[in-house]
Design goal:
Elements lengths: L11 E6 L5 E6 L3 E8 L2 E8 H6 L7
Length: about 60
């Protein structure tokens, strides 16, 4: 579910390193918000990352 419908940004994976250098898997999730936006001329609820909201790639519906 953590995927932006505008830019496609999703979860990325990597390693977490403890103080003793033991490696475990971890993930970074984007900041996804469910907003009402204008899609194809009609208002629709979509999942959008905050970067797209801030940059104006999404036109919010009132």
């Amino acid at each position: 579910m953590a995927k932006c419908e505008i830019c496609g940004k999703g979860v990325t994976f990597g390693k977490k390193y403890s103080h003793s250098h033991i490696r475990t898997n971890r993930q970074w999730k984007p900041n996804i918000q469910r907003v009402k936006a204008i899609v194809d001329g009609s208002p629709k609820k979509v999942y959008v990352c905050t970067r797209c909201l801030r940059s104006g790639k999404v036109q919010r519906a009132i």
